[in-house]
Amino acid sequence: MSWLDLLAGFALGVVGGARTPGFFPALLGGFLVAAGGGVIRDAAYGMPFFLLEHPSFALVALLGALVGFALSKMSPSTRLLVLMDLAASLHFAQAGASRALTHGLTAGEAAVAGVITALGGGAVLLFLGLEEGTGRRGPNREDGGSELSP
């Protein structure tokens, strides 16, 4: 694991923590955004779980989520969060594809694994409806329902 992996995990933890209302949902959201794509990739392709090989990554992601939660109370710059999300996602696309190649996947499979790594965590956050304003539940939902439509 490189320092870029840790930096990207921290950055996505911040992004997920800032996008999720409430303390515990922010911790979960930050962790899911930072680590979810790698977990999905490893499970889908039968690779050893990165989080089990590198438990410090989970701690860094949770620390990022704490920072994101604190920043959410101060109205952070949306542009900064988008830039952090983009930079970290690009790194994880490359890192996920590289990990897949290292574990013997074909180039095509590695490309898909890179996309899963980059986007999987954010997709899980949206699917679970943890992100504020997604239309599933939370303070922006008028009827408190759980339908997929806003």
Q: How would you describe what is shown here?
A:
With about 150 residues, the protein is mostly helical. The protein is about 70% helix and about 0% strand. It is built from six helices and no strands. The chain is elongated, with a radius of gyration of 15 Å. The N and C termini lie far apart (about 40 Å). About 40% of the residues are buried. The C terminus is likely disordered.
Helix-residue proportion: over 70%
Rg to the nearest angstrom?
A: 15 Å
Low-confidence parts, pLDDT < 50 over ≥5 residues? Answer: 135-150
Query: How many structural domains are formed by the residues?
Result: 1
What's the total number of strands? 0
Gross morphology? elongated
Order of helices and strands: HHHHHH
How far the N terminus sits from the C terminus, by CA atoms, comes to 40 Å
| SS field, number of helical segments | 6
Instruction: Profile the largest sheet.
Output: none
Q: What structural class is derived from the secondary structure elements?
A: mainly alpha
Average pLDDT level: 86
Beta-strand percentage?
A: under 5%
